[in-house]
Structure formats: C-alpha cells, structure tokens
C-alpha cells in the first residue's frame, strides 16, 4: 500500500514531538550524571563542559547504595518468584475449572487493583505488628514483610494476564494429555506451561518492575537495614548539599538493569497483554 | 481441586488486601487520634463523626478535602486524555513498517520501563528554578520569559502543570503499549480494502482502527483512570514533604493529613470515601459499556 505525503508528514511531526518529550529527561539524566558537582549547582547547560565519572564512584559512599541495591534485588526477585508460582496455580484453576465462587474470586482479585494504597497502608502496618506480638514473626522492617506485600500487589494483574493467556491455549491439548493418563498437575507442568512461556515471562517482568519501583509501602515498612532503592535514593538530597549529579548517576544505575531487561523481553510483554485484554 | 489451586492466592489476598481493608473501614468509625495510637484497640467508637468531618464543606478539613478532590479530577481528566491521544498517535504512526521503527518503539517504552522514582527525580531536577532545564529552555534558549523572571515550578500555581506533565510522561507509554498490542490484531486487508474504496487515512482511523480497538480501549481507559486518580508516587517524589496547594492530589492529601495530625480515624474515613467514589465510577462505566455493547 502506498503512503501519501500527508501521512508521511504527520508521522514525522508525531515522531519528533514524542521523541523530544520522551528523551529530554533521559538526556538530562545522563549528561548531569557526568558533570562535576559545581556544574549542576550553577545555571543549567545542555552540553556538559567538564566530563567526569566521579559521581558514579561517589554514589556508593555518600549513601550505602550497595546495601539498598542488594535489598531491592532480593525483595523484587523473591516477590516475583512467589507471585508467578501462585499466579500459575490460580490462573490454571480460573481458566480450566468451573467452580463455585469462581467469578467472585476473579472480580475480587481485580477489584483490589482499585484500592487506594493509603487505605490499607496503616492497617497493614498494625496487622504486621500484631502478627509479631502473637506469633513472633517480625514483618515490619524486614525484607520478608516487603516480599509478602509486593507479591500481592502484582498478583491480581498477574492472574488476570496469565488466565487470559491460558484461555488461548486450546483445551484439546489438555484432553489429549488426559487421555494419555496425565494428572491435572501433569497437564499443567508438561503441556500448558511450556506453551505459556511468553505469558510467564511477561508476568514475571511486570511483577519485578512493580516491586522494584514501589515507594509508598517501602517508606513505611522498611528500616535502615532493609531499605530498598526506591526509598534510599531520597537520601542524596537530605544531605547538606543536594548532589544532583550523584542523584542522576544513582538513578541511572538503578534503571539500567530493569530497562534493559524490559526492552529485551518487550515482545513477550506485548503478547501477554494482548492475550489478557482481547478476551 | 480448583480450591486447592487458588488457596495460596486467596490467603495472601486476604492477608494483604482484604483484612487491612476491613481494618481500615473499622478505623474510619473510631476516634483513632494520636492519644490512642499506642493502644489502638481502646479507641472509642465514633460512629460517622469522621465522615461528617470529611464531608462538611464548611469546615476547614472538609473544604480542603473537596479542593483536593477537584484538583485530582482535573488532573485525572488531563492525564488520561492526553496520554491516550499521545499513545494513540504513537501507535498509529508506528503501525506501518519503516526504517527506524524499532528504535522509536524502544525509546517510547523507556519511561514505562524505568523505575517510577528515577523518572520523577529526573523531572524534579529539570523543574528546579535556577539550575533546571525547563527554565533554561524557556528563558535562555527560547527567550519566552526574561532571564530574571524564572518561575518556581514545584512551589505555587505552576505545580499543577508540573505534576500533570510528569504523570503524562510516565503514563502515555502504557497507552502506547496497549494500543500497539491491540493494533496487531487488526487484519491488514481491512485497510487495503478501504483504500481501494478511496478512504483517506483519517477516515480509515475513524472507521477501522477505533472500532477494532474497542475491547482494548475499554480496559485501558479504566486502568489509566484508577492509576491516575490513586497516584501517590508522583506528588510524593516531586514535591517532597510540603505539597503546594495546586499539586494537592487526593492520595497524597490523605497520607499527609493522616500522618501530620496523626488522626488515622479521619484519614481512614477519607480513604473509604475515595474508594466508594472509585467503585461508583467503575460501576457506572462498566454498566454503560455493557449496555452499549449488548445493543450493538
């Protein structure tokens, strides 16, 4: 199909506007991270005149960034692992069984997406403290508490997305395996999961990104030892000086792993979204 | 069998979502002020006092809640509509294959992939009065304002503009991603057939693209509405502790009202009202859409 001049011009205009809007903060982040402190405290310049990698060295000593990084990695990967496993079983049930309470379950799970975080932040805090007093399990100020909280944040969307994905896998596959003598679990693990791999990857990306970026609950549920990057990054500006160059450098360091991971796996993510939303 | 499969999900949802919700509702009907925080189960029953306080628009607390609600409505309307327009424009121009298409798709997804706080902090730096890129661009590069009149962006009236821009920056790539995924399911033949009939690009967009994207749009608009209305991160990171009156979004308003005055009963009452509002809007939205799709 031939393209008209008008639609080509429209495309150029749209791409220029969207690219400038998207890229400017990224450009500012990268260039400012390469400037010495004096240059980010004066008038802004688009082109850095004194390039330095010092901010990337200083970020690790100004605040204990390495420790926050470890905390974030542990919390986000554990929450992702548990969330995906739980979502696999739940979405298998929703997609393959008709049972009492099925629609109540799916509706409730999706409705939790609507809850304002501020409504259950404080109750959750109080419940965690009570659990500690009753059972002696420390959940406030530990990574465990944060892992449990985050896995439920991504769970609703994970179940919804994965159930949509499983619905697209023909039931004839299950039946064929059943005839060959597979149990329900055998069907799930040997037949469905291998086919659903793109959906699983999409769900895992979503869970990891959700946990990696969460701020509100991390600010209340963590202490110095269990602090994650999302909260720890704020410490660069509570010092006497606001180290904008170090803040930008640290932002880059924490962004690069997730951005690269997401961009590499974006095809899976799009496939997972399509399966969930066209139902 | 199915019950065993959903049991883990149910247990965690009960622990983290449902039980705290119930506790939150209970908190909204007790007098849980700072005097009872240490021994919160002893807080006296307050009935609907907290709700009266929140809904009394003549009182100071009610008036500021109403103000915050109005700001959040305007904020959400702007963010959702502009994000949708940008996402749609991006998805449509990338629908056709051309050299460099993969690059633009990747670039546009970065704001969505980047951790929330990293993106917002970059904007916070750009919005600084004397050292920021925004004022530098407006005053020194474009000369739209005098070099001496650089405005504050994160304090005062401009804060509303700042928070809207930052939220759109983070939100539009999600619209782009969903719409792009939806466009892939539209068969190319539809466009070819209509082009043979002489349909221009805009006409094709209106009579093929938009209707075919119906199911995606239904989910997309609702999800963007809920996320934007509940958004806490953007004002929290952008403004820090002191929110300017024009950037007083409702989640942030409830958070600071609860933690500044330590009146958690009142804070919970405001949260419950917010939840009821969101339930009402979602219910009406789904009802209207279901009726319309049944008629069609």
What does this entry look like structurally?
The complex is a heterodimer of chains A (279) and B (296). By secondary structure, chain A is mainly α. Chain A contains 14 helices and no strands. The mean pLDDT of chain B is 84. At the A-B interface, α1, α4, α5, α6 and α7 of A face α1, α3, α4, α5 and α6 of B.
Chain-averaged pLDDT of chain B: 84
> How many strand segments of chain B?
0
Helix content of chain B: over 70%
Which fold does the CATH topology of chain B refer to? MetI-like fold
Q: Which percent range fits the helix content of chain A? A: over 70%
Quick one: CATH superfamily of chain B? MetI-like
* Quaternary state of the chains: heterodimer
Mean pLDDT of chain A: 83
Q: Give the CA-CA distance, first to last residue of chain B.
A: 39 Å
The residue ranges of chain A in which pLDDT falls below 50 over 5 or more consecutive positions are: none
Strand percentage of chain B, roughly? under 5%
Instruction: Report the strand count of chain A.
Output: 0
Integer-rounded radius of gyration of chain B: 23 Å
Strand share of the residues of chain A? Answer: under 5%
What is the count of helical runs of chain A?
A: 14
What is the CATH class of chain A? Mainly Alpha
């Amino acid at each position: 199909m031939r393209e008209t001049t008008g639609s080509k011009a429209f495309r150029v205009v749209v791409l220029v506007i969207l690219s400038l809007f998207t890229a400017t903060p990224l450009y500012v982040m990268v260039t400012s991270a390469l400037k010495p402190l004096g240059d980010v405290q004066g008038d802004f310049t688009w082109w850095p005149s004194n390039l330095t990698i010092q901010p990337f060295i200083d970020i690790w000593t100004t605040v204990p960034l390495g420790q926050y990084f470890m905390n974030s990695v542990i919390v986000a990967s554990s929450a992702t692992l548990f969330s995906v496993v739980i979502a696999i079983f739940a979405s298998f049930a929703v997609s393959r069984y008709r049972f009492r309470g099925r629609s109540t379950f799916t509706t409730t799970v999706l409705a939790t997406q609507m809850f304002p975080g501020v409504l259950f932040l404080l109750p959750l805090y109080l419940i965690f403290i009570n659990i500690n007093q009753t059972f002696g399990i420390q959940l406030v100020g530990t990574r465990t508490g944060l892992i449990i909280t985050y896995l439920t944040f991504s769970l609703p969307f994970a179940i919804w997305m994965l159930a949509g994905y499983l619905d697209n896998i023909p039931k004839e596959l299950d039946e064929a395996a059943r005839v060959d003598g597979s149990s329900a679990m055998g069907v799930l693990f040997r037949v469905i999961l291998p086919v659903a791999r793109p959906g699983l990857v999409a769900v895992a990306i979503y869970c990891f990104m959700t946990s990696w970026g969460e701020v509100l609950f991390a600010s209340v549920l963590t202490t110095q030892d269990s602090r994650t990057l999302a909260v720890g990054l704020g410490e660069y500006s509570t010092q006497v000086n606001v180290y904008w160059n170090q803040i930008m450098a640290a932002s880059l360091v924490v962004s690069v792993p997730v951005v690269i991971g997401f961009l590499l796996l974006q095809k899976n993510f799009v496939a997972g979204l399509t399966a969930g939303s066209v139902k | 069998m199915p019950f065993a499969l959903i049991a883990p999900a149910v247990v965690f949802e009960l622990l983290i979502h449902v039980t705290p919700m119930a506790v939150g509702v209970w908190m909204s009907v007790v007098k849980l002020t700072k005097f009872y925080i240490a021994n919160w189960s002893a807080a006296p029953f307050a009935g609907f006092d907290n709700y009266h306080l929140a809904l009394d628009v003549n009182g100071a607390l009610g008036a500021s809640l109403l103000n915050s609600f109005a700001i959040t409505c305007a904020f959400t309307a702007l963010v959702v509509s502009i994000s949708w327009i940008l996402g749609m424009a991006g998805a449509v121009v990338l629908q056709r294959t051309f050299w460099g298409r993969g690059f633009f798709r990747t670039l546009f997804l970065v704001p969505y992939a980047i951790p929330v706080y990293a993106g917002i902090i970059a904007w916070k730096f750009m919005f600084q009065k004397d050292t920021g890129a925004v004022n530098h661009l407006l005053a020194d590069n474009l000369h739209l304002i005098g070099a001496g009149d650089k405005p504050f962006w994160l304090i005062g009236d401009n804060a509303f503009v700042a928070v809207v821009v930052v939220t759109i920056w983070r939100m539009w790539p999600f619209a782009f991603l969903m719409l792009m995924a939806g466009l892939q399911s539209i068969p190319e033949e539809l466009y070819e057939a209509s082009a043979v009939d002489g349909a221009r690009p805009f006409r094709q967009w209106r009579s093929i693209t938009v209707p075919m994207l119906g199911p995606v749009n239904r989910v997309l608009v609702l999800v963007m509405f809920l996320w934007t209305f509940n958004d806490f991160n953007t004002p929290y990171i952008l403004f820090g502790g002191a929110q300017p009156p024009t950037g007083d979004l409702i989640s942030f308003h409830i958070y600071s009202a609860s933690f500044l005055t330590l009146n958690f009963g009142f804070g919970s009452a405001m949260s419950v009202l917010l939840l009821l509002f969101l339930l009402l809007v979602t219910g009406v939205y789904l009802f209207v859409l279901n009726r319309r799709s049944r008629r069609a």
